[in-house]
Design brief:
The chain has ten helices and 33 strands. It is mostly beta strands and 565 residues long. The structure holds CU-O-CU linkage (C2O) and copper (II) ion (CU) (2 copies).
């Protein structure tokens, strides 16, 4: 283990000192973001135009006749190829959108909800104005116009609400959908398509007796993240797929607010991914199981060749541990006794089936898994201009609120360490500043510590000593759990992942399931881990968010902006 406490300490001082210089960005304060974006730009000539809206509707989700009130996206294609919009009548999920690299897209978004909202195109490399930053949240009845060119390569992305302070509930009540990009390189590969290219959007919900969605806003649910007890796939419970004896491409998206899945077959067959978030991989990656944090996607190559007709395979979330604060995990294991609050009985890391694949038809042949997929430029330290001085994303907390870099979210405020020159490629270090508390109270540091205070505010939370290592003294409830860290704007690559001060047995349950290759936009950070990534900040200036994609954490303020200038 090369875990460097010194490094964290030095970095901590560096950015907390700079943190005091956090400043508003004058040019953003002057512009009225909304009025700037309610009319189309005359010079922008779209290939695709879509009328998009969000409204409350009743949808049958459970198979018991009940209709569930949801918030749902609707889309109408105004211009462009017919297959651009694929709507799901009987699901709360938004329509699947298919774009082609190079297309120019204009989307008119009408907010027909009873509360503010805005759509974010998660994984897409688009200008600030079209990224769905919460500062652009529009009121009911208002319109927002998005315009962007598809710069992404072929891959699977995800769009969802990013309403200011309301992202968690709005995504939970249905405001999410799948977004695909295709390109020439992908076509040349002859991957399974049409009926052999299927979505597999996984979400966990909780229904009350009347079949209505429950989203608990109690502090405990918000701190650890909301966990439902009913697993939905493509918006339906008890998912089953009829498949033929051949290969399929399943686009798996974790659209859950905070649940982490450990994807694996019941018969121990390993899983092969051909695409990560936002892009095809260089070559197929096979793992015994795959960890899938909130907002992560993998395109899986599922080959049913040779399986007897009439047989079935069950895709599970396999058991794992160490992703929750130890105290909560212990409580989760104790059933009954008021533990209903701990996520309705389906604990984080518990084993449960996700979907059943019924082999129903024998077919003669199947596409073969290509040995090579696409060529990707692998970024290394020599590509960055800050190899010795990475930008920090510290996982911190204060007053039992999870934070990044010690400060709560602000729509338009940035610290020095959050300013990045457009066109640069940066190394970023995501870490847990374990030892910060040791300096608490040292002279001259009280102000700096303010944003990073881990001491003296968790009386009653108890020590996390039995697993904590360096976390013992700090309490650090939120720091002792997994966080899916997501960065807006251009995708990144993982440079390194260093195991942290966690229980070895816990870590063994997840360690073989990370696919840290290719382009990503979210990385699941386990307690104590230190992860270095390389991210280009090219093409677009402005504010681009970085945040925890546990949506309850995001709404609690575990989110900040990079200011690309
Ligand atoms: Cu998927 Cu900022 O979000
Ligand atoms: Cu995003
Ligand atoms: Cu988090």
């Amino acid at each position: 283990m090369i875990h460097s406490i010194d490094y964290g300490r030095r970095q901590f001082l560096q950015y907390s000192a700079l943190g005091a210089a956090a400043a508003m960005i004058p040019e953003l304060l002057l512009a009225n973001p909304k009025s700037a974006s309610s009319v189309p730009t005359p010079g922008f000539k779209p290939d695709v135009e879509i009328e998009f809206s969000a409204r409350e509707v009743l949808v049958p989700i459970l198979n018991n006749g009940a209709e569930t009130r949801v918030q749902k996206y609707f889309a109408k294609l105004l211009k462009g190829p017919e297959n651009t919009v694929q709507s799901f009548e009987d699901s709360y999920l938004g329509p699947a959108l298919s774009f082609v690299k190079g297309q120019k897209v204009r989307i008119y978004f009408y907010n027909n909800l009873y509360e503010p909202s805005i759509v974010h195109w998660h994984g897409m490399h688009v200008p600030q104005k079209s990224d769905g930053h919460p500062m652009y949240s529009i009121e009911p009845g208002e319109r927002f116009v998005y315009e962007f060119e598809i710069l992404n390569n072929a891959g699977s992305s995800f769009y969802h609400s990013h309403a200011h302070n309301l992202t968690g509930p709005q995504v939970y009540f249905g405001l999410a959908g799948l977004l695909k990009v295709t390109d020439e390189n992908e076509k040349a590969l002859g991957l399974p398509d049409g009926e052999y290219d299927r979505p597999l959007v996984i979400q966990d919900k909780q229904f009350n007796r009347n079949g209505q969605l429950q989203y608990v806003r109690g502090m405990r649910d918000r701190m650890i993240g909301f966990l439902g007890d009913t697993i939905l796939v493509n918006g339906k419970p008890n998912a089953e797929f009829s498949v033929k004896t051949r290969a399929y491409r399943f686009r798996v998206l974790n659209g859950s607010n905070s649940r982490i899945y450990k994807l694996g077959w019941d018969d121990g067959t390993p899983l092969t991914a051909i695409g990560s978030a936002v892009s095809l991989l260089e070559k197929p990656e096979t793992r015994p199981y795959i960890m899938l944090g909130p907002s992560e996607r993998y395109d899986l190559w599922l080959d049913f060749s040779g399986r007897p007709v009439g047989s079935k395979l069950v895709l599970y979330s396999l058991p794992f541990s160490g992703a929750m604060p130890p105290m909560f995990e212990r409580m989760q294991r104790m059933r009954g006794g008021g533990m209903g609050m701990m996520g309705g009985g389906l604990a984080q890391g518990e084993k449960f089936p996700i979907a059943i694949f019924n082999i129903t038809e024998k077919v003669g042949d199947s596409p073969k898994l290509p040995a090579q997929l696409v060529s990707l430029k692998k970024l290394s330290e020599s590509d960055v201009d800050n190899a010795d001085n990475p930008l920090p994303i510290a996982i911190t907390e204060r007053h039992m609120r999870p934070l990044v870099n010690g400060r709560p979210f602000s729509l338009d405020e940035v610290m020095e360490i959050e300013k990045v020159k457009v066109g640069s490629i940066k190394k970023i270090k995501i870490f847990h500043p374990h030892e910060a508390h040791q300096e608490q109270g040292a002279s001259g540091e009280s102000h700096e510590m303010e944003g990073m205070n881990h001491g003296g505010e968790r009386e009653g939370m108890g020590r996390m000593g039995d697993r904590g290592g360096g976390m013992g003294m700090m309490g650090g409830m939120m720091m002792a759990m997994a966080h899916p860290i997501h960065l807006h704007g251009q995708q990144f690559q993982v440079l390194s992942r260093k195991e942290g001060h966690v229980d070895r047995q816990d870590y063994e349950t997840v360690r073989h399931g990370f696919i840290d290759v290719g382009w990503k936009d979210t990385v699941l950070v386990m307690p104590g881990e230190e992860i270095e990534i390389i991210k280009p900040f090219q093409d677009f200036k402005g504010l681009f968010l970085y945040h925890c994609h546990n949506l309850e954490h995001e709404d609690l303020g575990m989110m900040r902006n990079f200011y690309v200038h």
